[in-house]
Amino acid sequence: MQIYLPIAEMSVNVFLILGLGSGVGFMSGLFGVGGGFLMTPLLIFLGIPPAVSVGTEAAQIVASSVSGVLAHWRRGNVDIKMGLILTVGGFIGSFGGVELFKWLRQAGQIDLVIALCYVVFLGIVGGLMFIESVQSLFKKPKSEAEMKAAKVAGWKEKLPFQVHFARSDLHCSVILPLALGLLVGVLAAIMGVGGGFIMVPAMIYILGMPTTVVVGTSLFQIIFVTANSTFLHATRNHTVDVVLALLLLLGGVIGAQIGAKMSVRLKGEQLRVLLAVIVLGVCIKLGIDLVSVPGDLFTLGAGGKH
Amino acid sequence: MKRLILSLALALGLVPPALMFGRVPPAMAAEPLVADLSKHLVAITTGFAGTDVLLFGAVEGDGEVVVVVRGPNREEMVRRKDKQAGIWINSGAAHIRNAPSFYAVASTKPIDKLAPTPVLERHQIGLDHLDLEIDSTDAAADPGQYRDAVIRLKQKKGLYGTETLPVSLLSHRLFRTDLHFPANVPVGTYLVEVYLIHDGEVVSAQTTPLIISKIGIGADVYDFANQQAVAYGILAIVLAASAGWLAAIAFKK
Questions:
Q1: What is the pTM of this model?
Q2: Which CATH class for the B2-213 domain?
Q3: Which residues form the signal peptide (chain B) (predicted)?
């Protein structure tokens, strides 16, 4: 059954999109990640224009983060103060990111920049995750993370505007979460992701937040930052397709619930190795596409709308 | 909806073809060529997956029938990739100012056997004879490459015909052909030009407009997204957030 997407201006198979939504939803339920880093490249691969993929995926992440944060909220695992400061940084970042996106799109380099961001950030995060989880599969000690935290503690205390975060039981300069929020905000707007895969490790290793509040706080700020980039993509670029977003949502919701139930039966380390392999797989695929000779050296440019 | 009414008026032939087509010989008592479409409006609805439009008509006298379907011109941007520092980067670009957004030719005979090149070029019959204005800023590739590229890329999207489609001619009088429009067909006012060619000359021609327009929910969503972007953006967020919230409640147990 075909359905016409009014903004993407093409028709797609309903069941394909529902399947894609539930597949990625399943993964995000299983691993506790947003899944944007899988969904956006897959949508582009299906032939949805990259700009529409990124804009629409931002709307879908709003939904999955709202859905995900509620459980953490009930358990009190959201550091609201930290979340709000990250959101302020994220807002500024997503404004900059969407403007950058618009500019790159006109310059014809948006596809390249999206692909490069994916290769670099998925490579770093996937690589670190892989090494760490393989180590923890074979070895017991977990001192490495503590050592890293201790190493950065020195310069962190010298920064001005130190604030106490009661929920995280943490003293830290406002500059750190603001800068982190800003960086992730830019990336979220350009890559069509929530940025949890960068935010979560950064919160643990750079901010030194306790792991119990990390996921809830990350989801909390992702809601606002992706809501802002959805709004900006809709108003500045006209690239948010609500029909596509609703289809992805429908599949995603069901998939995520099944995934979350499955994850209880698997061990944490095994899950992380698996996730690292998937992240690295996406990274390698996009990397190969960048260096291998394209099927056609010429492309019809984007930005020719209307 | 005003746009639609205007489009329909155009489709129903309120604009005389002669206005659009200066070279038509003056109307005679017996029209040498009459043609019409099975429908003058292609509605892109939510379930749209491409459509066929039947073109039919009759000719008086000898000759071959050629049909050209042309979508509204738009400016296209073609970019060329080059390897820089190991990766393939868009390095050159050209604007093509007057590329038809859709182009297909149907004919009773291969077109190059019908008329000499100047005649085909004058009427822009056939992809080889399209008058494309290529504005290239790329010194490393010649405009011809960009011309080939835009045609090839449009063909890959199914928007330019890869071959001349057949027109069936019944007892040298009645003709018909099926025009196919794929799901990704651009919207706008199309012109379906029918030529009667005899002895290498166009002896008669007729132009019929065909409107391709988004209708229904899809069209409303598109208009809303473009005309009231702020409200659309807010609605998209509210929709997404409430869907997520509903999902969490529904699966809470």
A1: 0.77
A2: mainly beta
A3: 1-29
